[in-house]
Amino acid sequence: MSNLKMMKTLDENTLNILLENVPFPVVVFDKHEILLSNQRCSELLSDQNLNISFPDMFHLFRTAIVPTKNEIVLLDRQLEKHWFEMIGELVQYRNSSVILAYLIDVTSQNNSQKDAERVSKLYELMLEVNHSIVDIGDLQRTYNLILTNALKAIKNSSLGSIMIKKNGHLEAIAYIGYGKDIESFHLPIEHSFIYRSTEGKMDRICNISDLQRDDLFYSITTYAGDLVYIRSHISAPIYIKDEFYGMISIDSIHPNAFDESDVASMEFIRKNVQIAIANQLLFIEKSQMAMFDQLTGLYNRHYFNEQFEMIKSKALRYEETFLFVLFDIDDLKMINDRFGHYVGDQAILKITDLLLRNTRKSDIIARYGGDEFVGIFYGTTVDDLIEKYDHMDELMFGDPIYSAGRELHASFSFGIAEFPNDGESINDLMVTSDIRMYANKKNKTKQINKVL
Question: According to the CATH classification, is domain 301-442 in 3.30.70.270?
Answer without folding.
Answer: yes
